[in-house]
């Protein structure tokens, strides 16, 4: 067999057994301690991830689902200009809601209520709601816009359950992957 370097003391040795990683008894004890420690660290990391998931608030689940949803909307509307101002070239795009997510919770994940919007309109102009409405009417018609407004008012104070939010995130993560394969 070929000479190897000991994983613990770094001296060269000739292995006696197949896959021997250390040169002798003392190094074997040290190596097994390190392996045990690494195993415990991996187990703790996995346990921590489970605990972190169990301690998530509804707000955190909603934020994760919203992030996936808005990414999907930006991908879906990739070739469209900003719904509010019509700009076509900017580095910063958002998934902007016509009826604000903070006020109309029932339409947060309504694909008809969310479109690609430039960051200026969405964040710095408060959604640029008047021009957003005009953009919706131009693109889809008055009836479409009225339906969004009606649904927003009917579901204004909707509370999503944890399971619904997990399902929404999963749905949009899958759609994002499918979009990625198409492009």
Note the topology.
Blueprint (H helix, E strand, L loop, with lengths): L3 E2 L6 E2 L11 H30 L3 H19 L16 E5 L16 E5 H6 L4 H12 L1 H13 L7 H21 L1
Antiparallel strand pairs: 1-2, 3-4
Helix pairs in contact: 2-6, 4-5
Order of helices and strands: EEHHEEHHHH
Rg over C-alpha atoms, rounded to the nearest angstrom: 27 Å
Characterize the main sheet: 2 strands, antiparallel
How many DSSP E strands?
4
Strand order of the largest sheet: 1-2
State the helicity in percent bands: 55-70%
Shape: elongated
Number of helices: 6
**Terminal Cα separation, in Å?**
51 Å
What does this structure look like?
The chain is elongated, with a radius of gyration of 27 Å. A two-stranded antiparallel sheet has the order 1-2. It has a two-stranded antiparallel sheet with strand order 3-4. The chain is mainly α and 183 residues long. The model has no long low-confidence stretch (mean pLDDT 93). It has six helices and four strands, in the order ββααββαααα.
Short structural summary:
The protein has 183 residues and is mainly alpha-helical. The protein has six helices and four strands, in the order ββααββαααα.
Task: Provide the descriptors you would attach to this structure in a database record.
8% strand, two-stranded antiparallel sheet, single chain, 6 helices, elongated, mainly alpha, 183 residues
């Amino acid at each position: 067999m070929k000479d190897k370097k000991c994983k613990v003391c770094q001296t060269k040795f000739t292995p006696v057994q197949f896959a021997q990683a250390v040169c002798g008894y003392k190094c074997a004890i040290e190596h097994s301690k390190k392996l045990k420690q690494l195993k415990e660290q991996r187990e703790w990391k996995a346990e921590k991830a489970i605990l972190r998931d169990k301690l998530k608030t509804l707000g955190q689940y909603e934020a994760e689902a919203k992030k996936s949803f808005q990414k999907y909307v930006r991908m879906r509307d990739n070739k469209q200009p900003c719904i509010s101002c019509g700009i076509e070239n900017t580095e910063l795009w958002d998934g902007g809601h016509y009826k604000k997510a903070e006020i109309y919770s029932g339409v947060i994940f309504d694909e008809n209520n969310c479109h690609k919007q430039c960051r200026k309109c969405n964040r710095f102009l408060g959604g640029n709601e008047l021009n957003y409405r005009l953009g919706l009417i131009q693109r889809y018609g008055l009836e479409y816009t009225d339906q969004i407004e009606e649904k927003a008012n009917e579901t204004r104070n909707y509370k999503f359950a944890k399971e619904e939010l997990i399902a929404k995130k999963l749905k949009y993560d899958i759609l994002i992957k499918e979009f990625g394969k198409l492009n």
